Amino acid sequence: xxxxxxxxxQIINTSYPAQDRGHDADSDGPLFSRFSQLPPELRLxxxxxxxxxxxxxxxxxxxxGPLAPPVLYTPPAAAAAPEIPAYSTRNQLGNVIxxxxxxxxxxxxxxxxxxxxxxxxxxxxxxxFYRVHIxxxxxxDPVDRYLPLTTLDRHVPVLRGTLYxxxxxDVVQLSSxxxxxADDQHPLLDFIHDLKAYDPRGIGICxxxxxxxxxxxxxxxxxxxxxxxxxxxxVDCVSRLQGIIWMxxxxxxxxxxxxxxxxxxxxxxxxxxxxxxxxxxxxDLVGRDPRxxxxxLKHVVTxxxxxxxxxxxxxxxxxxxxxxxxxxxxxxxxxxxxxxxxSAKGEVWxxxxxxxxxxxxxxxxIKSQLSQHGFIRQLAGRVPIEGxxxxxxxxxxxxxxxxxxxxxxxxxxxRVVDGTPRRMFDLMGHWPELALSRLx
Length: 440
Hints:
The protein is of the alpha/beta class. It is built from twelve helices and 17 strands.
């Protein structure tokens, strides 16, 4: 298929044919029938290697009350159980848990390793690797990717299950839709406490990601009014973090007309280098972006909250709570173009959906230029702004995301930041790390 697709529409991600994914039991894909005859220690090394060869992005929302998604099934014993005081019960590891009635939920599609259901030996290896086994709720209809965003985010029923996590390997993005019912509780802190309680090593989170809402919630917390166990767990978790990522992904950033975003200096551009955010939770961090992205780093646009503001709030929180990290926390900013608007139909899961998105994006961009051709011609000199020669030399698209060091955004100076949710950054002085989504 790639031979018939123009270069500017050819993604750089590797994709895997169906027979290599094991989706079709009758396929002619490659098999290794003598695997069971290998020495046990070699088989375990192979299982472990397959678990280590990619990272995961766990996007978890914590909700309470009317904003929580409906739970499809609650065991009768749980429904009839009397209410017990918070932080008074223990889990199977013997650790105290919050016992709070928050609903922590995530999307389960492509989340867990197939080794969990391959064989007893493979499952054992996966359970040891993903050592945190915490109760969680999963969206009940993950195969329906064509619902409006509001439906996907808040109203899809959830089913209770178990999340298997490896703190050193997973990035955990947390968001909270509501505070607790009293001043002394906050569901996000309760969940962080419980995540540590279900970790045999007592770590819970090594790599945290926060958007503006999550960071704003944390910044507003008053330490003195919260449950002591939740405070202790949060302080310990933050002090031991390896890294934190500020979310600056948005629905803009590739094709944009500056004046429509209230960014007149941005001009009219199509940023081919800006990664497209994939829907799969699995990704590979490949390091320095290998593409020739340099010139397009001058116009990195996002319509999210200014990530510098999140950085400032974070350090104010550390100061106010007197949290002293045991090691420097690596702060990075994530930039990517989201595709799940106005519905999840545009989500990119595989090579075909990536091609469909890119083609639709190109058609929409051309139509947009033609519909306001006079103004575009005045700004860019011609319509469309890119001809065959420019497109032939354009940077190939990537499905994934960029990570920049927070220093790339500039010094916060007196900690006064423009709160405008539309920003353009000149990041030419910092080459980004590139993460590529696993496409299936």
